[in-house]
Write a structure and sequence with these properties.
Blueprint (H helix, E strand, L loop, with lengths): L2 H79 L5 H84 L2 H14 L4 E5 L2 E2 L8 H9 L4 E2 L6 E3 L6 H6 L1
Parallel strand pairs: 1-4
Antiparallel strand pairs: 1-2, 3-4
Length: 244
């Protein structure tokens, strides 16, 4: 195997690990933003339910006040009925009393309706308050975990980038240029193993002479189809495995 092959394999491994860590570091703030946005929407929903409950209670109080007004009016009309001098006056007072009583019944029905809505709203508020408390704790736990993960990833990235720089320094400029070109084209997969005369990346058979040259390991070779660097691992014999 050509000496540069090990360095290319090592460099590819560093780049793959670095890319994975950078992706993870970039994803964590997005994840936190998503769960915080969800939490915020739940907070707004709870606030809306509380506002609806408060409005419901105010409406009931206002309607109860309206009933008192009608009751006072009925009481006054009944007192006036006692002083009615004609049958027409008596009937007029009676008609006004019946109208006020009818209005009271309408208001009472509306109050009963509001009470039913209030029970549902109170249940929603209580349930949401408990759920929101738990969700806030989970979000804080997630944020702490994300901060810890980010710190660990960034520390590992420093180590990997330093190791990558050492590997890069050992590679000839031409090989490094080829490495960068292939990496950009194939999104990270730069070098592939040749297995049974075939490139394991693109699955195309290699020319017999190219495969033989690859086995000899005199130079760093590329696949004629996909352009990736190639390496060959000779199969171990039974004796090699026993003695190894």
């Amino acid at each position: 195997m050509h000496p540069d092959t090990h360095l290319v394999i090592q460099l590819q491994s560093f780049d793959q690990k670095i890319a994975a860590l950078e992706k993870e570091v970039a994803a964590l703030p997005k994840h936190i933003a998503t769960i915080e946005k969800t939490l915020e929407s739940h907070v707004r929903k709870l606030e809306a339910d509380r506002a609806a409950l408060s409005a419901n209670q105010k409406d009931r109080k206002r309607l109860e006040g309206d009933i008192q007004v009608h009751q006072q009016k009925i009481s006054k009309l009944r007192d006036q009925m006692l002083g009615a001098k004609t049958n027409e006056q008596y009937k007029a007072f009676q008609h006004e009393i019946e109208y006020a009583e009818k209005e009271i019944r309408k208001i009472e029905d509306k109050i009963l309706e509001l009470m039913g809505e209030s029970e549902a709203l109170e249940g929603n508020v209580k349930t949401a308050e408990v759920a929101l408390k738990e969700e806030k704790q989970l979000v804080e736990t997630e944020k702490t975990s994300a901060r810890d993960s980010t710190a660990a990833d960034q520390a590992e990235l420093i180590t990997l980038r330093a190791a990558r720089a050492e590997a890069v320094a050992k590679l000839p400029r031409a090989t490094l240029n080829g490495y960068d070109r292939i990496r950009k084209k194939w999104h990270g997969l730069v070098i592939a193993e040749a297995v049974e005369g075939r490139c394991s990346a693109c699955q195309i058979m290699l020319r017999p002479q190219l495969f033989q040259d690859l086995k000899n390991g005199d130079q760093l070779m590329t696949c004629e189809n996909c352009g990736r660097f190639l390496y060959y691992n000779p199969p171990m014999s039974f004796v090699d495995m026993v003695t190894g």
